[in-house]
Specification:
The protein is of the alpha/beta class and about 140 residues long. The chain has five helices and six strands; from the N terminus they run βαββααββαβα. It has helices at about 15-20, 45-50, 55-60, 105-115, 135-140; strands spanning about 5-10, 35, 40, 65-70, 90-95, 120-125. β2 (about 35) and β3 form a beta hairpin. It starts with a strand and ends with a helix.
């Protein structure tokens, strides 16, 4: 599996997705520091929410093969800047999370915002129900 770093705001589902991708029991935990589970790097939401901490994202990304921008479909706040994917020297894909509790309009809005951020490919997921995670896993396991 590619070494992948997850970036998104607090409570968008990064840790839950990390647990799902690694076949772990889903347990809520607040990510206080960068965590590594197998080939997934889980970053605190504060790294994205506080622009002064962007350097932490950029430094951590140096050890990644792929970046995943996560957008909670039910969150009206959008933290990624237009073209932000260009910050990174590796591909950036988007993940719309919490699709199981979002409206179609919310999902469409999240997809559009991730496209504006520069995501090359976008996945619709619910880490709680597992919806869309197999497609994401297949993508992460594709040979370069």
């Amino acid at each position: 599996m590619k070494k992948v770093m997850l970036i998104g705001s607090s409570t968008c589902g990064k840790t839950t997705l990390c647990q799902r991708l690694n076949g772990m029991k889903i347990e809520y935990q607040k990510t206080q520091t960068v965590g590594v589970i197998n080939n997934t790097i889980d970053t605190p939401g504060e790294y994205l929410e506080n622009r002064q901490l962007y350097k932490g994202i950029i430094v951590t990304a140096a050890d990644s093969d792929l970046i995943l921008f996560l957008q909670d479909a039910t969150d009206e706040r959008f933290r990624f800047s237009p073209g932000q994917a260009a910050f990174f020297s590796v591909p950036v894909a988007g993940v719309v999370s919490k699709t199981d509790i979002a409206t179609q309009e919310q999902i469409n809005d999240a997809v559009e915002l991730l496209e504006l951020a520069g995501c090359e490919r976008i996945f619709l997921t619910s880490a709680v129900t597992g919806e869309g995670t197999q497609e994401l896993l297949d993508f992460l396991n594709e040979e370069e």
